[in-house]
User: Fold these one by one.
Assistant:
Number 1:
Amino acid sequence: MTKMLPASPANIASAAKILQDGGLVAFPTETVYGLGANALDEKAVAGIFTAKGRPAADPLIVHLASLEQLPRVARTVSETARTLATAFWPGPLTLLLPKQPAVPGLVTSGLDTVAVRVPNHPVALELIRAAGQPIAAPSANLFGHTSPTTAQHVWQDLQGRIDLILDGGAAAIGMESTVLDLSTPQARILRPGGITREMLEAVLGPVTVLEQKRKAEKGLPAPGLLEKHYAPRAEMVLFTGEKAGEALNAYLAENRLVRKVGVLAADDEAGALEQAGAVVYRLGGDLSSIARAIYAGMRWLDGQGVDLILCREYGERGLGLAIRDRLTRAAGKVIGSS
Ligand code: TXA
Ligand code: MG
């Protein structure tokens, strides 16, 4: 039986006890909800994979309450890693570091690196502190579904499969953390997220971004960064390039008489799209609102029973890169224009 409870101090304390006893607790972070287990307890970690239906080849992120806990999971911490952790933790930056032998191979899919971050959310920090252990936590959705940004989303996916969901309201960022590989001469973003390329470059100098299509190739250090992921049920089409807006409008006009079409749209485009016959989910007016709203929007449009979801990219500056990445993974089809 899964319980869903408000994240009060008493409920956080019971949640910590569940984690200590090897159970599974979904909890809020600033990015998305995580599904936590004691990272040093292999049996507990195995439960995460079962609950999510996640393949074991997809490694997990270990969450800490503070930088001081790092030696428990990382064998060495380079100068660069320390600088980044000091600059961006607590926050949406995941660092890949050489792993301690104490971390079960199941957490890292047998890799020699462990992914670590300190989340910037009071409930998450209090829970990890109270549990007294590093907490392994992927996003709290069924494998292949969109990441949950509210406790209700977690409930839809994982009720009956986990012990407890702590409800701490909607996630502030709404997209998963940036995953940064420090094993290459130049730091490399494996998954863009809340800590943007520009923010990292202000601290590190030039940073590279692993191209979407290369992630699926064999032998790359991120086996879990599957190309198709985070998908809604409806077919989804992404429009890219300068004429993305016009191309989306034309596609809508062609399809709206034969299919129920949903659109994820920025506020300034929403009215015209509604006029044109689409079911519109309003994302907001700036990149941070758009990032926050995208997963909730996909779930909402699925709930409206649309057959097709249309969306466009918003460039690659700042959060635009992460938005494009998630939309590309969710979309079955990308239509480019220049
Ligand atoms: O914001 C987030 O990162 C959320 C919250 C809950 O913290 N967590 C999250 O976890 O998104 P998950 O499991 O859905 O995504 C973790 C990503 C996966 O794509 C995985 O492949 C990658 O991190 N990863 C984990 N360990 C890795 C490693 N040792 N090397 C390369 N990639 C790794
Ligand atoms: Mg995930």
Number 2:
Amino acid sequence: MPPYRPIAIPGSEITPESVYFRRRELLRLGAAGGLALAAPSFAFGATELAARPGGYDPDEQVTPEADATSYNNFYEFGTGKADPAAHSGEFQPRPWTLTVDGLAGKPAEFDLDQLLAFELEERIYRMRCVEGWSMVIPWIGFPLAALLDRVEPLGSARYVAFETVVRPEEMPGQRGVFQPLPWPYVEGLRLDEALSPLTILSLGMYGKTLPNQNGAPVRLVVPWKYGFKGIKSIVRITLTEDQPVTTWNRSAPSEYGFYANVNPEVDHPRWSQATENRIGGGGFFGSNDRPTLMFNGYGDEVADLYAGMDLKANF
Ligand code: MTE
């Protein structure tokens, strides 16, 4: 079992070498947060992305926003890549309540303004889908550790479980005759993974609040894991002692593990994971294929979490 780790993270330490990020000022967000109540989406302000040396291939370009918002997996709106953008227009991400409970000294509910009041940062992360494609996305969010810190995890907490909203009236994929997955969509992390400075709750992307198809109003981003860990439109986060059930692991346990760490050496039973296709990215000689990196390139930050573990058995 992973030991419970202290959560207080000095600002200087939440800047991994392989991440570009820009810290935002709370004051400006206070103003923007007010706007969120009135407008369907709002801009967080002009983004100024600074390239950080080391660990990140400068040839990697941020994925065009049009691609990141039109090629999605969000089965609550349908199983096709174009379905979430086409069929999420009825979804109402405001008002919103995120409940954080379970093995916590101070379980709490957070509305959207309370979430927006966390110290938001922009993080440009490489994202790798288990299906073999990847993107580079400028997220806006805050470390999940900051939220968990508020509710004071008990010493018995070992895992964190996440749950997506169930609203068949607003989510066509939840009311069809064909139900591709059991609802709610659920995910989980080991507590030490959840407390990694790389793990964020995202409220926005490309300088604006999240579009519905990308998981409005709040979703998880874990950049060293396959995309299905990034559960969208979260209504509940629960600290648990036992490893939580996760949607894809329950649906196809031989294909999707609990850990789901990006690993070019562990193939999916039906396809190789050694390379990936970068959506909208200019590769060499017209190909967008590139080698997949261990832990999606974030090994310096996260490999220690798995010291001594057999990553083929714990895929
Ligand atoms: N969350 C919910 N609730 N439902 C889903 O179907 N799909 C997952 C993940 N989160 C999914 C979800 C998968 S398979 C991927 S690859 C990512 O969302 C895609 O995120 P994106 O559309 O923002 O790129």
